[in-house]
Structure formats: C-alpha cells, structure tokens
C-alpha cells in the first residue's frame, strides 16, 4: 500500500505524518465496513508488513483509533472494532473531550484573569522560561509534558491552590489530548503562539487580554479536535456542520 495516498484532508497544507496516514487508512477501512464491528484487526506484525511502517508508528495509530472510540485493545487477544464511526466524543484517560473543554472554559479562562492580577515576578519568570523551552523543543513527548506544566503554572499564578488542584486532577487527560492534537493536528507551533499571547497579557497585568487569550486558545483546541474527529463533509450529531464553523488552514490541539 502507498500510504502517501492516504490523506486526512486535501485542504490541509502541511505534511501528513506516517502515523496520520496509517490512522486515515485504518479509520477509512473501519468506516467503510472493511473491518466490521466485532472484527479483530490483523496482528501488529501483519499490519506493519502490509502498510510498510514501523511498529511504533502503527501503535500510535492504534492508540488514536482507541481514543476515537472505534476500537478496543484486549490484552492477549488483540484489537477489536467496536464502532464504525463517525467519532463524536473521544476519551482522554478518564474524561471525554467534551467534558474537558467545558471544564477548561469555566476554570482556565477566569484563572487567566486572576493570574494577570495576582502574578508575582517569580511566576512570570517561570512562565517565560517554560515558554522559551517549549518554543525550542522538537520532541513531541517533551513538549506535551511542558504544555501541561504551562497550564499548571498559569493556575499557580492565580494564587489560589484550588485552581491548581483542579488542573492537577485533569493533568493526565490534558497531556493525552495535547499529544493527540499535536500528532493529528500539527498544533505545536500554533499553540506556542497562543501561549505567548497569554504570557504577554500576564506580563501586562491585563485581566481582559489574559481571559481573551485563554479563550482563543481553548477555541483553537476545540476547533482542531472537531476537524480531526468530524472531517469536512461529515455531519455532527445535531445535523450538518454549520457553514460558519471556524476552520483554519493549519489543522490546529
């Protein structure tokens, strides 16, 4: 199989990774009935041979299928199809994506405002250092770890331990979501710019700009997730996707 022909969307002007190509191929095969609900996928060794990819690449794609709710992995038995899609609400760790974004909007947006009003010089130094490291980091795993640290640091700057505890509770889910969106949405560079806008608002002490910057960041997260799980041309659970749904040239976390 020529995986270069398996694209996640012709309108996306960026290079599709090997993992994305594998995921696109397997997802299409499931959604078109080549693998029916209840079927067991071929073994990892068979898929690696037929798709001509390495085992780490294949495993990333299989994890993404499971996150999307299309498959389930059963220890010692293999990977089985449990849904033929379309995916509505992926799960990251213990939490559904829709629950995560709802909580993040109600917590992180006001937290950014409090952080702008209460941040200390030490908070700003810590955030600036984290941001510099993220902007120079090339390893996705390391970047994802710093992404969660960034959001924890903003909560810390709000000077209310309850806010930090809430972010700590969803930290694993945030990391899983961040990795998912970066692998499939090319989010890292864009997310760095959004984080930079948040930090600049905190430096300026502008509660309004900080809440606006965080709201924009979460909007982009949700837009990217929607673009991945409900590609253009598919319908949402409430009907056809609205024509004014925000989209971006670079499939954004």
UniProtKB/TrEMBL annotation:
<keyword id="KW-0804">Transcription</keyword>
<dbReference type="InterPro" id="IPR036390">
    <property type="entry name" value="WH_DNA-bd_sf"/>
</dbReference>
<protein>
    <submittedName>
        <fullName>FadR/GntR family transcriptional regulator</fullName>
    </submittedName>
</protein>
<keyword id="KW-0238">DNA-binding</keyword>
<feature type="region of interest" description="Disordered">
    <location>
        <begin position="228"/>
        <end position="253"/>
    </location>
</feature>
<dbReference type="InterPro" id="IPR008920">
    <property type="entry name" value="TF_FadR/GntR_C"/>
</dbReference>
<dbReference type="InterPro" id="IPR000524">
    <property type="entry name" value="Tscrpt_reg_HTH_GntR"/>
</dbReference>
<dbReference type="Pfam" id="PF07729">
    <property type="entry name" value="FCD"/>
</dbReference>
<keyword id="KW-0805">Transcription regulation</keyword>
<feature type="domain" description="HTH gntR-type">
    <location>
        <begin position="16"/>
        <end position="84"/>
    </location>
</feature>
<dbReference type="Pfam" id="PF00392">
    <property type="entry name" value="GntR"/>
</dbReference>
<dbReference type="InterPro" id="IPR011711">
    <property type="entry name" value="GntR_C"/>
</dbReference>
<dbReference type="InterPro" id="IPR036388">
    <property type="entry name" value="WH-like_DNA-bd_sf"/>
</dbReference>
